[in-house]
């Protein structure tokens, strides 16, 4: 592997400083205009109150620093041709990045109505943070962005994900000093310990310390600079520092720092990619940039310090529309950038400004890496049928996830540069360890002989951080590659907000025709709430299902495969999909297998189906009761309950329905996977009561079937926050979802009560009482439960 860009650039010249400064002034002008102006965009006349928006929204304080860095990175690209993307942790700098795309011309290319003239600038201003317009953050609508920044803490994890298996990419990751206080960001500095310079690209973190957040100082902004430097050096970085507010000098100093950092990155990559490979593990460079908050804005307003204080964070002149003195300050502020030098008579940026832009796809706002679907290639996926469980002995217990692990290993073999597994130190525990037959764990720190399946060349990503793993996968998929994030079910709530934010990104991207579809975010949850017997109540929580189903139907997918063959069929579909959040929930423990592979494919294709072999429905008339399930453990309880009813109450007609695709339950108008009304009636009838045994919180099913015929007839058993360190069956008993509870529910809600029903209910109560005393005395479940198997036919 060779380097594809020059390893250095010349020192900045005075002519280049003039162009960069003109571009920066133009960007600052457009940034302020977006926050304040609805008319008179180029100050062709004196400002009036009518020129000011009725609502002033946006953030000024971080914006000038972001555009300053942007301008200098563009100059580096011009000289080197380096493939680069720019991620802004301070997402509040949205207007600065929108302005940058506009000055580069990309904005007009993707939004032709925002023209490069005075009328276009007026539209640019009016749309910002306004109804029918665009958000105030660096959102999905911003060309060149894959990271909004509105939810602070994730810029570095996204950045490191972008460069994995992406050797020619440089990702600039600006970390705000407010963001630097968050837990996820503090943990994400460790990403440098997982980047292999021989095969991965590089992240250049720029810690932008302007000293303040929304209403006060920041920790790193006030900390002794020597301590801040030591902190980052302790993480393994080679720290370069730049500080000041003198504009000409800062242009020169920051340019020198950026060239120094770039040269060090290229030297690290040259050493790693040379014939002899790398030597000692590198210390990657990073930059600490200290500038005043609200740099170049008003120094004081009404005697209150603004620039260099938290007062510049949002809208420094918030009452300008009704305050003539503030209006005059705003006009002076805007004119300080000398817009007449920056825009021609038509309102287009002048040549001195556009001279600072790279060309074509080299523009930061036009990089295909920031529109990763343009670069996506389909995975080479093996035939999942090759990993099927043969049902020669249906009672055999199988760790279903191991079969997925074998398929995942083959994905590693066939896709050595475009597929990765991300897992918080649980790959083996999650039964996915077959991947280690193909690749070690990635780790760039010191290795010792006792290490197992750990190497500098490894590509399996393990770090004890859901935030890192989730964020790495997001950056990986948004730049066009494929992967899966696997974790214990309860730990998924640690990164649940990331799942939600990624869903929102995909939802909005679907409405932008210029955004190409990207590989889906695939999440596998194991060690589920029902079988976390050794960890106990703290590890028993199915909440991520609830989060995903509340996202828009166009992106949300939830699968609850009950066995190995359905898991394989679902996984194949998810790996091939685009721009979804696919949540797959299945336990890692040995479990009974229900369907042949052909049956599993048919079942997963439909999303739900009647298991005729489990019930005694004659399908001539409606059944007396429907037993439904979604989830592996609860499916076993449902099938066991059906067997009890068939054996002890044969006069009761029972239909058994299993749902593998949870999103088939809503109406078709509410979700694209929603089954038709006809199919829904075929499964559940339109008036027979349904005892629904669900993996997660019962309210989720009620939410999903809302609007279906007589939805109140659905009686849901699920996780009700009852748990402890106990036996597997005791977990379903504590949550009132055991086979005995289901039998009693069936009797209580059946449309008729056959002879023997009362006796069967009493028997169920007796079994529950026996269970309660048995588990305490014997520390395991009763034999009739522990050894129960279902024999088909």
From TrEMBL:
Gene3D superfamilies: 3.40.50.920, 3.40.50.970. The keyword Lyase applies. Keywords: Lyase, Thiamine pyrophosphate. PROSITE patterns: PHOSPHOKETOLASE_1, PHOSPHOKETOLASE_2. Pfam families: XFP (PF03894), XFP_C (PF09363), XFP_N (PF09364). InterPro entries: THDP-binding, Transketo_C/PFOR_II, Xul5P/Fru6P_PKetolase, Xul5P/Fru6P_PKetolase_C, Xul5P/Fru6P_PKetolase_CS, Xul5P/Fru6P_PKetolase_N, Xul5P/Fru6P_PKetolase_ThDP_BS. SUPFAM superfamilies: Thiamin diphosphate-binding fold (THDP-binding), TK C-terminal domain-like. Its cofactor is thiamine diphosphate. Residues 12-374 form the Xylulose 5-phosphate/Fructose 6-phosphate phosphoketolase N-terminal domain. It comes from the Bacteria. Residues 588-790 form the Xylulose 5-phosphate/Fructose 6-phosphate phosphoketolase C-terminal domain. Belongs to the XFP family. NCBIfam families: PRK05261.1-4 (NF003619). This is Phosphoketolase family protein. The lineage of its organism: Bacteria, Bacillati, Actinomycetota, Actinomycetes, Propionibacteriales.
């Amino acid at each position: 592997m060779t380097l594809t860009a020059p390893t250095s650039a010349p020192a900045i010249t005075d002519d280049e400083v003039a162009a960069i400064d003109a571009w920066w002034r133009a960007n600052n002008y457009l940034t302020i205009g977006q926050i304040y102006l609805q008319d008179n965009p180029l100050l062709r006349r004196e400002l009036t109150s009518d020129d000011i928006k009725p609502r002033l929204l946006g953030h000024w304080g971080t914006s000038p620093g972001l555009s300053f860095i942007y301008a200098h990175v563009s100059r580096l690209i011009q000289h080197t041709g380096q493939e680069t993307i720019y991620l802004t942790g301070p997402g509040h700098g949205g207007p600065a990045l929108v302005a940058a795309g506009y000055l580069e011309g990309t904005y007009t290319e993707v939004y032709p109505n925002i023209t490069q003239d005075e009328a276009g600038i007026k539209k640019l201003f009016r749309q910002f943070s306004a109804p029918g317009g665009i958000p105030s953050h660096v959102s999905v609508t911003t060309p060149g962005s894959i990271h909004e920044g509105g939810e602070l803490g994730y810029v570095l994890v996204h950045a490191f994900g972008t460069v994995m298996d992406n050797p020619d990419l440089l990702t600039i990751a600006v970390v705000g000093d407010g963001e630097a206080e968050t837990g996820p960001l503090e943990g994400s500095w460790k990403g440098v310990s997982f980047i292999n310079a021989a095969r991965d690209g590089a992240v250049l973190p720029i810690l932008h310390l302007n000293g303040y957040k929304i209403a006060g100082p920041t920790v790193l902004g006030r900390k002794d600079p020597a301590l801040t430097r030591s902190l980052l050096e302790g993480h393994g970085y080679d720290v370069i520092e730049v500080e000041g507010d003198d504009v000409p000098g800062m242009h020169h100093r920051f340019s020198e720092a950026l060239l120094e950092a770039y040269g060090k990155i290229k030297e690290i990559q040259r050493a790693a990619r040379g014939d002899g490979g790398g030597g000692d593990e590198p210390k990657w460079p990073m930059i600490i940039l200290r500038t005043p908050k609200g740099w170049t804005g008003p120094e004081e307003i009404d005697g209150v310090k603004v620039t260099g204080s938290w007062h510049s964070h949002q809208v420094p002149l918030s009452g300008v529309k009704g305050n003539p003195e503030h209006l005059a300050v705003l006009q002076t502020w805007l004119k300080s950038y000398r817009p007449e030098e920056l825009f021609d008579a038509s309102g287009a940026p002048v040549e001195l400004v556009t001279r600072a832009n790279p060309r074509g796809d080299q523009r930061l706002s036009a990089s295909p890496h920031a529109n990763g679907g343009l670069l996506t290639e389909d995975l080479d996926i093996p035939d999942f049928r090759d990993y099927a469980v043969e049902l020669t002995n249906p009672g055999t217990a199988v760790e279903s996830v191991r079969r997925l692990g074998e398929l995942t290993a083959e994905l590693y073999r066939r896709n050595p540069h475009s597929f990765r597994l991300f897992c918080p130190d649980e790959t083996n525990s999650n039964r996915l360890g077959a991947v280690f037959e193909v690749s070690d764990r990635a780790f760039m720190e010191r290795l010792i002989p006792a290490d197992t399946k750990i190497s500098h060349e490894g590509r399996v990503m393990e770090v004890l951080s859901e935030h890192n793993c989730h964020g790495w996968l997001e950056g990986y998929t948004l730049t066009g590659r494929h992967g899966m994030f696997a974790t214990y079910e309860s730990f998924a709530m640690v990164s649940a907000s990331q799942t939600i934010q990624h869903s929102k990104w995909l939802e909005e991207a679907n409405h932008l025709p210029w955004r190409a579809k990207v590989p889906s975010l695939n999440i596998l949850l194991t060690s589920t709430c029902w079988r976390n017997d050794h960890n106990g109540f703290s590890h028993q929580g199915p909440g991520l299902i609830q989060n995903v189903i509340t996202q828009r139907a166009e992106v949300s997918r939830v699968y609850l495969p009950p066995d190995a063959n359905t898991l394989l069929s679902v996984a194949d579909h998810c790996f091939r999909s685009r721009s979804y959040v696919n949540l797959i929930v299945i336990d890692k423990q040995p479990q009974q297998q229900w369907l042949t592979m052909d049956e599993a494919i048919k079942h997963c294709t439909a999303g739900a189906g009647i298991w005729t072999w489990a019930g005694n429905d004659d399908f001539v008339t409606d059944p007396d009761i429907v037993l439904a399930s979604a989830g592996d453990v609860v499916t076993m309880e449902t099938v066991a309950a059906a067997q009890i009813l068939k054996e002890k109450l044969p006069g009761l007609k029972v239909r058994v329905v299993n749902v593998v695709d949870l999103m088939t339950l809503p109406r078709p108008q509410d979700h694209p996977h929603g089954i038709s009304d006809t199919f829904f009636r075929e499964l559940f009838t339109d008036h027979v009561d349904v005892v629904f045994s669900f993996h997660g919180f019962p309210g989720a099913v009620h939410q999903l079937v809302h609007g279906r015929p007589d939805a109140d007839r659905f009686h849901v058993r699920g996780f009700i926050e009852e748990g402890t360190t106990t036996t597997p069956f005791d977990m379903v008993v504590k949550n009132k979802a055991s086979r005995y509870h289901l039998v009693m529910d069936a009797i209580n809600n059946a449309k008729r009560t056959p002879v023997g029903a009362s006796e069967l209910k009493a028997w169920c109560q007796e079994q529950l009482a026996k269970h309660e005393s048995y588990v305490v005395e014997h520390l395991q479940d009763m034999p009739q439960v522990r050894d129960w198997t279902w024999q088909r036919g």
